[in-house]
Amino acid sequence: MNEDLTETDPEGPGADAHICTQSDVAAQYQQNHKWLRYVADRFFDGKRPDMADEVIGLVFAHLLELVEEEKLTDRGESWRGYLRKAVLNRCIDLARAERKARERFPAGNPEEPRIVDRDPLGDYAAAEDLARRRQAKLNTAVANLTDRQVTIVRHVLNGETQKQIGEELGISGQGVGDQLKTIIKKCHEEVTRDE
Fold this sequence. Notes:
This protein is mainly α. The protein has helices at 22-43, 49-68, 79-104, 123-143, 147-157, 162-169, 173-192, and strands spanning 18-19, 73-74.
C-alpha cells in the first residue's frame, strides 16, 4: 500500500514490504466493500447509489493497475484509512467532473444564458450563510453597546488615536484602550456564540 521505493532498487518495494497481489486487493475489497459503499453514499447524501458504486470500482481498478505494475506494496499498515481517503477523493473528482459536464451541455434551450455554478461542493454557499448569521449577531452586539462605547468606536473608525479620544471624552488613553478591549470581547462573544 506504500509507494516508497528503496535507494538500492528504485523499482522495487521497501526493505520490509511485500508486493501486493491481486488476491490481496480482492481480500481488501471483500473486507471493506460494504463500509466503503456507506462512506460514498454518505458523501452523495444517499441520492446517487450509481456514483457510489462507480467510485468504489474506480478505486479498486486503480489498485489492480498498481498490482500489475508491481508498484503496490504493503508494510502491514492499515488499509482502512487509505481506502477511505481514496474513496472520498474519487467522490470529489466525480462530483466536479459531473458538474463540469452539466455546465458544458446544459439541458433546455441553448439560446438562453446559463448560470454556471463555480462552487460544485457548496463551500461558498456555506461560507456565505455563516457570514450572514455572523453579521446579524454582530448587529445585535453593536445595538447593545452603550452610548460611550459607540462614541469610542466612531472615533476609532475616524482614525483618531486612543490619546485623542481620551482627551475628548475626559478619560485616559489607557481607559479608552480598556473600553476597546471590552467592546471587542463583547462583540466576539456575541458573534461566535452557538458555533
